[in-house]
Model the fold of this input.
Amino acid sequence: MMTKVELETFVEGTTNYFATAANQPASVGSPYIVQDGRPTVQEFTGLISIAGKRRGIVYFTASRPMLTVMLMRMGETELTQENMCDLVGEVANTISGNARRDFGKDFMISVPTVVAGEPDKVVTPDNIRSFVIPINWRSHSAQLVVCLE
Amino acid sequence: MAATAKAEPLTNGKLKLMICDDSNIIRRKIERELQIERLQVIATASNGKQAVEAFRKEPADVVTMDITMPEMDGIECVENLVKIKPDVLILVISALSDKATAIEALKKGANGFLCKPFTDRQLTEALEELLRGAGNDD
Done:
């Protein structure tokens, strides 16, 4: 079970990502537990598998319109499906990697896996509770889902 | 015995830069935002294996290197590049922000570490510091 302090690491990582990479701060809400069903999955999802001392997954999921604006804010001119897949993977990778500052080197992260347009392929472990960190950026919303033993 | 290579300087006097990152948007961002006139991008690679192959063909003077990549990670790649060209300058650009990772990269032969996410200014400053440290400043 994750602690409040551990979740705060992911909130800070998300806040820092948008302020630095997307050139505009996001409003990052308080994490909540998914009570029934599965966490939200949008059109593009970047997943990181976590191994080592902690196990589970971290994923960032966002819509095409949001990713389009993010790419534009980053100075990217090729607003392609490929770059949107790349971006969701990079966001998940960056926030998960930054978490090692607090979790340490044994918080081992995989290379990103990207799911586009097939939300059923995003699966969280049944036996672990998922926390959703809501992200509001400009007029868009996205989610960071943290599911760790 | 490790392979060796000698860099052929560019005719315009610029230093050769190779960018290695599995993210296309990060590679393009570094290339686009490069504000140091003495550097010229000669190669990009999306994993460590590709980077080593490109480096053997044409060794760069400066390399930006991600760590978490498929095929061969950045730490192993740094070790390989330094064997080929011991005086290569390597700036690791990674999201892995724990001290142990940075120390490991430096021990393997990297010369600097920049944590993702980064701003244009942070990238420029990190590269300038790298060049200053090697005595390549103007």
User: Anything to note?
Assistant: Residues 4-148 of chain A form a domain with the Chemotaxis protein chec fold (CATH 3.40.1550.10). The first helix of chain A runs from residue 4 to 20. DSSP finds four helices and eight strands in chain A.
